[in-house]
Every structure is written in structure tokens, then in C-alpha cells.
Amino acid sequence: MQAGFRTARDKKRLMAEINAVPYIDVTLVLLIIFMITAPIVQQAVTVQLPQAPEVTDTSQATQPVKPFVITITRDGQYKTSEAPELVLTQSEVTLLVAEVVARTQMNENLPVYIQGDREAPYGRVVHLFVVLKNNGVPNVSLITEPESAQ
Fold first, then answer.
1. Which of 125, 74, 85, 88 has its CA nearest to residue 98?
2. What backbone phi and psi angles, to 5 degrees, belong to 96?
3. pLDDT of 78-106, one tens digit each?
4. I need a surface site. Which of 8, 99, 128, 142 has the fewest CB within 10 A?
5. Which of 3, 5, 14, 128 minimizes the C-alpha distance to 68?
């Protein structure tokens, strides 16, 4: 048995591996060609566009909409931005919800904010939020204060 010499059978074995070096070379050459020719190939069409008068929008959409704010005090009472001196109790919440629904039906872009005191009962804030959402008021948000302002 000769370990250092190859036999005739070993010389005739075929390699089952693909030689990827020529494919990489061709790919890089094509990439360079495309990078050079791409800016040259771009063509622009010059067109004289017609002129038209400027359209000014006079609708109410350009005017800022004053938000409707509902405040819940630490005592659990409700106040609104429209009548801040009027204090509503828990039993008058249904009237408040009906008023907000009517306002949003007249103006769909009306933002409604709920401003709950930090010491206010959390359940009342969430209950008002859910009732407004369930009655179809689209823009209901909670007002918070940034943590750095404490």
C-alpha cells in the first residue's frame, strides 16, 4: 500500500463543486457597467405646463377648531370648557354625553378632551371615555402632563 502516490483511479474523479469565481467577476463587471451607464441613460422630457389661478380655501377647515374639554375634579364632579362655572354631578353625565354627541355630529372634526385631576376617581375618567367612544365620538383624548413638569 503506497500512501504517497496517486493511482489512475484517483486522477479520473470529477469535482462536483461549481467554480464561483468567474460568476462573481462577471457580476461585478456588470454592476460597474450599470452604475456608469445609469446616469447617462436617464432622459428628461421638457414640458411647458399650463398656468392656473391659485385656489384659496375659504372653508371652515382652515380655521382652528376650539376643542371641547371636560374636566373631572378631585371631588368627582364634571365641568366643561363651555360653562366652567357650572358643576355637573354623576347623575348629569348622560346629559353631558348627549351634548358631546350632538356637538360631534354637527362638527366631526371637533376634538374632545378629558382632563382628569390626579386625585380624581380613575373609574369616572375611564367610564366617561368609554361612554363617549361607544356613542360614536371619534376624537376623544385624555389630557396629561409631562413628567418633567412635576
1. 88
2. -65, -45
3. 888 888 888 887 778 888 888 889 988 88
4. 8
5. 128
